[in-house]
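Structural prep section.
Before we set up the soaks we want a predicted structure of the protein with acetyl coenzyme *A in place, mainly to decide which crystallisation condition to try first. Input record follows.
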Amino acid sequence: MGKFEDMEFSLIPEERYEDVIHHLRNNFFADEPLNSAVSLVQPGDPHAELEEHSLNTLKDGLSQMAVHRDTGQVIGVALNGIQGPDDLAASQAKLTTLTDEKFRQIFDLLYGANLTLDLFRQHGVDRIFECRILSVDKRFRGRGLARELLRRSEEVARENGFKVFKEDATGFFSQKVAESVGLQTVHELRYEDYTSPDTGEVIFKTKKPHESLKIMVKILQ
Ligand code: ACO
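Run finished without errors. Recording the tokens verbatim:
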């Protein structure tokens, strides 16, 4: 019997967007290492900004899901979006208008780290394929599902002619998954070194074994 016999993989059609959000509320919003470090939400709770971020990414039409055959439930997703050269600066400017301080802190870190790189110029491209959210249902973790979703995402990127495949991997397991499909770290920021300019305190006290943010890239030939 195949490893993923009980699952079906596909691009995510619009009629499943709500089910994807439901999955993320229960498995990603509270669990992702940075969200968890700042207690962004309780498991199951909605989060307006994260849901907008997820829906905007879904609309790019490049996201992958795994559905459990028996129940029809969405049990894993890779939400993939297209990044353009001016998007980071625009997203960063928009952050200042948001009221959720914790959400702002997380995206300040992510956008700031990305702005230290110039992947567009470095690779001579005007769009980057970005895996923004990788999430697997708690009941199905540790079976290689995230790896399979990322592998399939890479295929989607290739089919759509992207040269750069990128992920901001915020925790140890997503970093292992990305390495296992050939992404390499181009920038690493240790959370213990990321401190408040006012108080000197570490901003993200992540749980073990999550120690750093890694911006990871694979060049698709
Ligand atoms: N304990 C020990 N090892 C683990 C665990 C665990 N809890 N979870 C995964 N691993 C290991 C696996 O053994 C495997 O290593 P191996 O290849 O050496 O065997 C590797 O990590 C990858 O395992 P997968 O089974 O492919 O990953 P999984 O399907 O469990 O999903 C994921 C990993 C997506 C990180 C999941 O734990 C999750 O949804 N976490 C909450 C959300 C999150 O943190 N997402 C990533 C943030 S970054 C981003 O979204 C771009």
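Observations: Residues 101-115 form the longest helix (15 residues).
Flagged for discussion at group meeting.
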